[in-house]
Design goal:
Strand content: 15-25%
Helix content: 55-70%
Structural class: alpha+beta
Number of strands: 6
CATH topology of the largest domain: S16 Ribosomal Protein, Chain: A
Distance between the termini: 124 Å
Oligomer: single chain
Number of helices: 4
CATH architecture of the largest domain: 2-Layer Sandwich
Order of helices and strands: EEEEEHEHHH
CATH superfamily of the largest domain: Ribosomal protein S16
Amino acid sequence: MATKIRLQRHGRKGYAYYPIVVADSRAPRDGRFIERIGSYNPNTNPATISLDFDRALYWVEVGAQPTDTVRSILSKEGVMLMKHLRGGVKKGAFTQEDAQRRFNAWKEGRAKVANAFEAKKAADKAADKKARMEAEAEKNRIKGESVAKKKAEKLAAEEAAAKAALEAEVAQTEAAE
């Protein structure tokens, strides 16, 4: 029996998520399957992948053929690398401990890259927020200056009007005397 590791489509229109299953190659895409080994949700940012590493490794080692998308998912999770390393152990190229050490080094490097990406993303977000705050502060300063100028002009106009009214009253009283 030819087995495939593939995605089944679930969810509503425009919002799909995909269980990762091992199925007979003749079975329908969303039909019968032998075992569910994980899931893939592309709707989150970044896409969420949950995978039973040991079962996926077992199925790859016994000859189940992953589809292209599943192969990339398995590669990102390290299943294909571990299969490669175990093949090297079987051939006697290196020991099991050496293979595990190489896998752990790969995993740490991958985690370091992911952390660096997250840190850069957080720094960019903070810089963007700071720039927006500075721009808003500048806008508020300009607005405050224009409001102060208008108030000063209004106050000056009121003082001039009061002064003119006072002068007119003084002129009236002098004319009346």
